[in-house]
Amino acid sequence: MDTASGDERGTTERVLTLLGLLQRRRVWTGPELADRLGVTPRTVRRDVERLRALGYPVHAGQGVGGGYRLGAGKDLPPLLLDDEEAIATAVSLLAGAGGAVAGAGDAALRALAKLDRVLPTRLRQEVRALSGSVESFDGGRTPVDPEALMTLARACRDEVEVGFDYPSGNEAGRRRAEPHRLVASDRRWYLLAYDLDRDDWRNFRVDRMTGVSARTWRFRPRATPDAAAYVQESVASRVYPHRARFLVHAPADTVRAQIPASAAVVRERGSGSCEVLSGAGSLDFVLMHVVLLGHDFEVLDPPELRRRCRVLAERLLSAGAAISPEETAGEDHQRGTGVSPRR
Fold it and tell me: Where is region (Disordered) located (predicted)?
């Protein structure tokens, strides 16, 4: 072995050991660290400078209560985890990716993909076993196989083809795809991928996939649509037999707070109005939900929905025509007190 290479490796291992010691306890004296590392206090000071050069804020204090301690910095440097800490972190990230931690799904999966890259093989079995005991009592997203989720995340990262069984109609067929992004909604995980057999972009529900596997064949990335927008529009409207567009006279943020992202796409159209795109099994169902938002609106598409509005309006007027004098008096009282019926 080259002597210089051996010395450099020894220094690197010693500096990593020093980092682990500083993460384990709040304060160490110089002699304590020197004794643990089997070096002189002068070498400890040099190794501390090496850590500082890598972005670790190591503070040194003088006097009786002095010593070395690892502080907080402006940026987050790499953490050094032992086996137990790595397992606990991976299981916690799996729980977050599965929806047990509100709003943490995307960030948890990204962090888990980074940890997976360096996680030793001997620890993966333990992570897999422990992840099966992690559940959420408040519902959250539809449960998915964590191994399938990680396989897809790795395939997206490494740009390799994936294969999986996926139901279509009453049968499940094998699909081949070039994975692009995993997208989390408030209820489910989706994979946006280029379907090689159908020669087009598709989104797939991860909880409906079985037999997920990654190939070694790498692909050249294609020009891709915006993943989140594509999946949201697919889930909210494209998969339904009937789709409709409305101009709603209310701010987009107000309407978004009223409609789940999986039920409609809301696009801003000026400061006081927005466009709502949604789908359902029947146009009456979509219309009913827009009416119940409580805002004035116009039908943009399809034309037949405008005609349906008139038919339903006449039916509602007819239903309210035979109103009793007592009910009329009640409405007049509500107007006088500033209370209006719920729209």
Answer: 323-343
Backbone angles phi, psi at 45, to 5 degrees: -60, -40
Helix (H, G, I), strand (E, B) or coil at 279: strand
The one-letter amino acid at 229: A
Beta-bridge mates of residue 202 = 193
Give the pLDDT mean for 163-174.
Answer: 84
Q: What's the number of domains the chain is made of?
A: 4
Task: Answer yes or no: is pLDDT of 326 > 70.
Answer: no
The H or E element spanning position 125 is helix 121-131
d(CA 81, CA 88): 10
Domain membership flag for residue 342:
no
* Residue 141, in any domain of the structure: no
Q: Residue 204: which domain range?
A: 146-229
Say if 59 falls within a structural domain. Answer: yes
How many C-beta neighbours within 10 Å does residue 86 have? 19
The predicted structure's pLDDT at residue 73: 66
What percentage of the chain reaches a pLDDT higher than 70? 76
65 and 90, same domain (yes or no): no
Q: Are residues 175 and 246 in the same domain?
A: no
DSSP E strands, the chain: 58-61, 67-70, 160-168, 171-184, 189-195, 200-205, 210-218, 242-248, 264-268, 274-280, 297-301
Give the model confidence (pLDDT) of 116-135 as tens digits.
766 777 777 666 655 554 44
Structure tokens at 265: 């796409």
Where does a domain end: 203, 229, 255? 229
Predicted TM-score (pTM) of this structure:
0.54
Integer Rg of the chain from CA = 30
Residue where a domain stops, chosen among 169, 196, 229: 229
To the nearest 10°, the Cα dihedral for 220, 185, 243, 180?
A: 0
Q: Has residue 118 been placed in a domain?
A: yes
**CATH code, domain with 179:** 2.30.30
Mean pLDDT of 5-26: 78
